[in-house]
Design goal:
Structural class: alpha/beta
CATH class: Alpha Beta
Strand order of the largest sheet: 2-1-3-4-5
Strand content: 15-25%
Helix content: 40-55%
């Protein structure tokens, strides 16, 4: 039996975090939830997820900053990252690209489409944005 893939979800809105957990657990993923960028980095010091889903606007550190820091650590640099944001501006997209994120999802998201995107990213596909 194979071990479930682990996905780190860093999202400060509790209801949205719970919704993501429910969506991901349907597909058998193990979900680790944290509420801000500092918690994400603390969790990453001890764990290596199969995927990180990071909200842009969070207390302490943005998801883009967490992504950037992950990509500079040998153990974490190959971990795919999906950036979540309600921001629709060009600067946010550019910052996510510069941080080497693998995909960007604009909130609100469509559950079925999001689950398919997670699978594609886990399969190694970068999603242009």
């Amino acid at each position: 039996m194979t071990q479930a893939r682990t996905i780190l979800v860093a999202e400060d809105e509790a209801a949205f975090s719970t919704m993501l957990e429910m969506l991901l657990s349907v597909d058998g993923y193990e979900v680790a939830k944290v509420a801000d960028g500092r918690e994400a980095l603390a969790w990453l010091r001890e764990h290596t997820p199969d995927l990180a889903i990071l909200d842009v606007v969070m207390p302490h550190l943005s998801g883009i900053e967490v992504c950037s820091r992950m990509k500079r650590v040998r153990r974490l640099k190959e971990v795919p990252v999906i950036i979540l944001t309600a921001l629709r501006d060009h600067a946010t997209r550019a910052q996510a690209r510069e941080a080497n994120a693998d995909a960007l999802v604009i909130k609100p998201l469509e559950g079925k489409d999001f689950r398919a995107l997670v699978q594609r990213v886990l399969d190694g596909e970068r999603q242009p944005f």
